[in-house]
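Extended Data, panel c. Modelled sequence:
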Amino acid sequence: MRIQNQSQTPGMLEKVLTVLVGTVVLVAAFMFSLVILAVAVVVGLMIWGYFWWKTREIRQVMREQREQQQSQPRQQPSPDGHVIEGEAIVVDEVHEQTQDTKPQHRSNPPEK
């Protein structure tokens, strides 16, 4: 009985099948990568569109503020070179006057 060597070189049919299977795997991988890329682009555009739509009012307010600042004359710096800028909000406050229950005594009479 003769023992066959397991490390025989592959035949022509095996080589052709290996090349065909490798080519099919590469084409399939390329197709899947294109699908994944297309999905990523669509999802990215959807996120960008949502962000753009939600920030449209903020952009409009910023544009109006920029136009107002450009139309107003620039404030001249003070002679010492320091400019203090800020905003003030006037709030009307109503204070209740409380009356003391004890009469107040003055040690000196009021002058006339």
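The chain has a mean pLDDT of 82. This feature is highlighted in the accompanying rendering.
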